From TrEMBL:
Classification via Pfam families: Xre_MbcA_ParS_C
Domain Antitoxin Xre/MbcA/ParS-like toxin-binding: 80-124
Annotated organism of origin: Ensifer oleiphilus
Name of the molecule in the record: DUF2384 domain-containing protein
Length: 129
């Protein structure tokens, strides 16, 4: 199975809704969808402000990976949070006890998105925080 399709099979419908035809996260679509500027989106994803204003950088592997991680986490919580906007608020502000009170946003910025996804999987199976 091609790598792009493999990575897409784990993405929720929210992530897929922000992708262009080539499988890249469409930065403008994400910013608009969450009512943010590109600068605010970059800050939320832990990227330099100018990254999302330059197409060659916004399409880079690191940028795309960070945006995908953020959207995957938001997608996982959007149903029980009450929608994507509430899921974004949760992502940015909810302290997670299992991580010393750090927010999902802070963890993703530190490259710990996999740990947040594992935590959410654990919680979905009835685990304790």
């Amino acid at each position: 199975m091609p790598q792009v399709l493999k990575s897409l099979e784990h993405s929720g419908p929210l992530v897929l809704s922000y992708m262009d035809r080539s499988g890249k996260i469409a930065v403008e679509r994400v910013a608009t969808g969450f009512g943010m500027s590109k600068s605010q989106l970059a800050e939320t994803a832990g990227l330099a402000r100018e990254t999302l204003y330059r197409s060659e950088r916004s399409l880079g592997a690191k940028t795309q990976s960070r945006l995908r991680e953020m959207l995957e986490i938001i997608s996982r919580v959007s149903d029980w949070a009450g929608g994507k906007e509430q899921a974004m608020a949760w992502y940015r502000a909810q302290p997670l006890p299992a991580f010393g009170g750090r927010t999902p946003e802070a963890l993703v910025k530190d490259g710990k998105a996999a740990a947040v996804r594992d935590y959410l999987d654990h919680m979905a199976l009835g685990g304790f925080a």
